[in-house]
Amino acid sequence: MSIEASAGAGRDGAGTGGAHTGRPEDRPGPTGREVRLAARPHGEPGPENFELVSTTVPAPGPGQILVRNTWMSVDPYMRGRMDDRKSYMPPFRVGAALDGAAIGEVVTSEAPAVPVGATVSHSLGWREYAVLDATAATVVDTSVAPAEAYLGVLGIPGLTAYVALTDTAPVRPGDVVFVSAAAGAVGSLAGQFARRLGAARVIGSAGGPEKARRLVEEFGYDAAVDYRAGSVRAQLATAAPEGIDVYLDNVGTDHLAAALDALHIGGRVALVGAISLYNATAPVPGPTNLVLALTKRLSLRGMLVTDHLDRLADYLPLATGWLADGSLHTANTVRDGIEAAPDAFLEMLRGGNVGKMLVRLAAGAG
What we know:
Elements: E1 2-8, E2 28-37, E3 50-58, E4 64-73, H1 77-81, E5 102-109, E6 119-122, E7 129-133, E8 138-139, H2 156-168, E9 176-179, H3 187-196, E10 201-206, H4 209-217, E11 223-226, H5 232-239, E12 244-249, H6 253-262, E13 263-271, H7 292-295, E14 299-302, H8 312-324, E15 332-336, H9 341-349, E16 356-360
Parallel strand pairs: 1-3, 9-10, 9-12, 10-11, 12-13, 13-14, 15-16
Antiparallel strand pairs: 2-3, 4-5, 4-7, 4-16, 5-6, 6-8
């Protein structure tokens, strides 16, 4: 990752340069740093694909706010946005700042509805300061949970796990449920949600004995499959000898194939992610037993959480209540400083996190 000289910054925090006028929104503001996409990766990304740049942030214009970011999220979907291909979200632009979920404190406001001092969530992460329209930010209540919880259990990962198991592949009382990447941001919550929905047995997969231990001891799983220790198919057959009813897929490939073998007739699959494919440089063969979806009359349904943001109104009161009474267990893996963001992202893609991978951008946050 290289470091570049200071550059001007536009409204979204991306460097633009240019002279300042007398208008409030053009007066120079604080200097901050942002991470830009230096080059598109081929296969697994590395430090050379990122660039740390110092920028001068303008003052907000009418209806805008200036936010000092305190926390930012790194997430698997960001890997797809590093490639120049059509998808459900636009690709990152080479030479421009990356973006993603962030939490911060409003330090200047030109929008009466969002006062100075408010804590807000927004989508201009990967930078220390962000200028954005107030309508693009959501004020969050830090009296019910720490600010960073709105990037994890009270944010997209929590909503993903909840909707996957209530709508996409609904859990019914007595079900046996299997979750892959069960120690990650979504999976560490999904096992607990499955239990609340009446599952009789919950099985999770993770890499390594320490993660497997934590699945059972902290995250509500009855049994753990350590995919590094041997065949996922064989371990799942041992953990669920009579089969499974629901599978939440974050991985694809061998995990999906194992689940297809184990699913009962009429079983349900939520296709949430496929992290095993994200760095592939050639087409990856799918499960060779997909015919079981036909013969077992399975439901395999893809899910994008962005289609379900309206469910936050239902989900947040439930989750905040579970956090308050101590019955919902969460974990974060935290790295400090904007300069640590690329390594945190790469570490997350390699499975180096338990729970949500976060970057703390401001000293004293959290």
